[in-house]
Amino acid sequence: MQEEVQQLLEELRHAVTRPWAVMEVCGGQTHAIASLGLEELLPPGLRLIHGPGCPVCVTSVDLIDQAVELSLRPGVVLCSYGDMMRVPGSRGDLFSAKARGGDVLLMYSPLEAVAFAGSHPEAEVVFFAVGFETTAPATALAMQQARALGYANFSVLCAHVQVPPALEWLMDQDEGRPDAFLAPGHVCAIMGEEDYGRLAARYRTPMAVTGFEAPDLLRGILMCVRQLENGDCTVQNAYGRYVKPEGNRAAQERMKEVFEPEDRHWRGLGLIPGGGMRLRREWEGMDAALRFECGKSAHGADEASGCLAGQVLRGLIRPAECPFFGTSCTPLAPLGAPMVSGEGACAAYYRYKRS
After folding, report:
1. pTM for the predicted model, two decimal places
2. Which NCBIfam families match (predicted)?
């Protein structure tokens, strides 16, 4: 692998003739880049921008507030991924709600929550479904399984979001628009390349699907640079061992049976047309927000006062450029979601780049 990395870096040094900015839109890639020190190895003039590639980070304050509210209701058990526990809302986070008596359980998968609902028929079990298209098929499968088993006490608070509409939103912005994108390999493994190819052609912006190891990332960056230098604009695949052009058709069909697109507020970005998923009408009986008539938050701000997480998520600043970074904002006391999520850019910089 070391020889391959050296070869790719050498090719990049020869390929870059002018300044370029490439954005990765996957939090796992951001952490890999930071932990491997890849930015420091790139040739001068080639800059990486960390985009809104963390579904936990872009989950709206309103949805966090609904989750907190549900966890505090008598008889309700709120099941959540561990990353969601410290994401701040206007009414605190799930960790503080648990300390106040809320019933919150950490789960590794929605199927685990279905099993819990089956063994605890006296409880209303709500799974806080967060993630890109990568995790949505598992949520859909869990709902279908709960219905097949007759578990009427299982429902979902849906916070799933879709990546291509967010990329489209970013490319419509004048400020901070990157020259090329590294598309998220895990999402493309499910959804394929079609949407990214369409965006690359429409906005004349190169894209490369890539993974998480150093050769994957460098190969994707090299693909983007060569396209930029040659004036090309298409989607290329640097992660072919996992990503096929058509994606995973079975997973896509599973999602379509349960979800449909909706406009969604992305924390730090704003309203993204088609950026979210909601349950189809025939599945609304398992929609926790409707079942428990969760109220909308009156709190309009995305983050705590002064927090610059929105600028970090848009790639306008780096985490260390925020005046709160590492001082009044840490993983144990976060002002914004990117500091506490396992895929957040601020958390990556805090862990690997504080010096």
Report:
1. 0.93
2. hypD (TIGR00075)
DSSP E strands, the chain: 20-24, 46-50, 76-80, 104-106, 124-131, 154-160, 180-184, 207-210, 235-237, 259-266, 270-279
Contact 228, 222 (CB under 8 A): no
Give the whole-angstrom CA distance, residue 133 versus residue 276.
10
Does residue 45 contact residue 20 with C-beta atoms inside 8 Å? yes
Q: Is 186 helix (H, G, I), strand (E, B) or coil?
A: helix
pLDDT band at 306 (very low <50, low <70, confident <90, very high): confident
Contact predicate 343/33, CB 8 Å: no
CB 345, CB 337: distance < 8 Å: no
Distance CA 319, CA 306 (A): 14
